[in-house]
Amino acid sequence: MPSLARAADLERVLTRAAEECESGAAWFGQGLPQALKNAIAATGKPIEQSAAEVAFVEAGAAPTVPPSPAARVVALSTEGLEGLASVVRSVQGSKPRVARLICPVAVLDFTTEGIRVREIRHGLTAADLQGKLSTTLWSGPDLKELGSH
Q1: Which residue among 14, 31, 57, 66 sits deepest, i.e. has the most Cβ atoms within 10 Å of its Cβ?
Q2: Is the pTM of the predicted complex or chain greater than 0.85?
Q3: What is the DSSP letter of 130?
Q4: What pLDDT does 1 receive?
Q5: 37 is in which domain, residue-wise?
Q6: Going by DSSP bridges, is the β-strand pair 100-103/106-111 parallel, antiparallel, or unpaired?
Q7: Three-class SS of residue 101?
Q8: How many CA atoms lie less than 13 Å away from 68 in the CB half-sphere?
Q9: Model confidence at 5, in pLDDT bands (50, 70, 90)?
Q10: How many domains does the chain have?
Q11: 129, 106 Cβ separation under 8 angstroms
């Protein structure tokens, strides 16, 4: 049975990830993305997988390829701050190319300019994340608290 902290991290990731597929057009890989699919289905929201606009994959898992190469790929992970470096490395080298990572401590975008911090968990700073990574992070004035949409 997962600890309360681990369960809270999972809920945080699934809740934030559900926001990524507002249109309902999504594809779900194995593992954590299947939990997301089940959570969305439990709300009664229809899911359309044939014309997926976004594809969810599990960070660090064996690569799965979405049926539509045009889909924006979002990686999900329940790793916290201590495992962030490992997750980022796995996402950076993955195929298909991941556009966004959602984890319990942050939402990170992988762009041609580098890794952008889009959202960060309450109580953490971008410096906390930077301290765990060997690559430079950047953020803009639109940086939000994770889950504050």
Answers
A1: 57
A2: yes
A3: H
A4: 47
A5: 4-145
A6: antiparallel
A7: strand
A8: 17
A9: confident
A10: 1
A11: yes
